[in-house]
DNA sequence: AAGAACAACAACCGCCTTAGG
DNA sequence: ACCTAAGGCGGTTGTTGTTCT
């Protein structure tokens, strides 16, 4: 039955394509305009009908995808934060390639984006390690090396921002000396990773506090960068190389169908990040051995060659 | 400066599930 | 109960931009 149904569908699609009715490929500014305007007035859903009524020569599926992955107001753009990366790694270790399920825990991020991240970044690392990305060995490596590094990055971000208000004496009192241009290593990594009032400490308590609901807006709030509202799109249209953003910004902010705030309401992000509550059973906390972890250039890759060699050494010694 | 190689990500495809008639 | 269309999901491909040689 299904095969015949699909066959019919394909025939319809093919005939339409043969007639040149349906457009494919990258969306144009005009198409984006039509779609956004139509949804602003009539809402989402009934995508095939929507495509027709909006005057778009696209399939309903294509419209839906364009809207959900790109045009929808709460879609968050830009690089994934360490928090988000950490969350993806952890959730993927639990659920595998359930991208949409994972995406539900990263508000503003689409399943497509997460999937792309996994394929381009995570699988690449696995290849470099010569390990299957789905293997338990790789998962071990992620837990032992990558996640601590992300946590460290989060801590550094947090400390960097807090230290801007501290004088040198205060910094000494806190036992840290950074950031400097040459990445001074803190005297104690455990201090760096597990300060008493750190996000990590709160992070690790979440499971026992509330593992299912998304609450406690204070949690993980130290790094305000992660929840800043679409600065690229809303305040600097010129930074976007894609036609959609600038256009979208102008259109939406001038369209009375949308309230201004809804265009960049990402406040839920940190809450949801924290709300996963799975860290009570994961070896995230302070598991990193004392060693030369800290290096420059962590923004570019969180899994540097030193780590890989270290991991290989551990594998070879049977750890 | 030009071409090749690589990376990032937008978009499409095919299959499955679900809702409604 | 069956049929169909629509929506959703994960895998894959194509395009574009960037970096390297």
Keywords for this structure?
319 residues; mainly alpha; 55% helix; elongated; disordered N terminus; DNA-binding; Homeodomain-like_sf; transcription; SANT/Myb; transcription regulation; DNA-binding transcription factor activity
How does this structure look, described?
The protein has 319 residues and is mostly helical. It is built from 15 helices and no strands. The longest helix has 28 residues, at 136-163. The termini are far apart. Mean pLDDT is 54; it is low at 1-20 and 164-305. The protein binds a DNA duplex (21 and 21 nucleotides) through residues 1-2, 5-6, 8-10, 24-27, 45-49, 59-62, 64-66, 69-70, 97-100, 111-113, 115-117, 119-121, 124, 241-242.
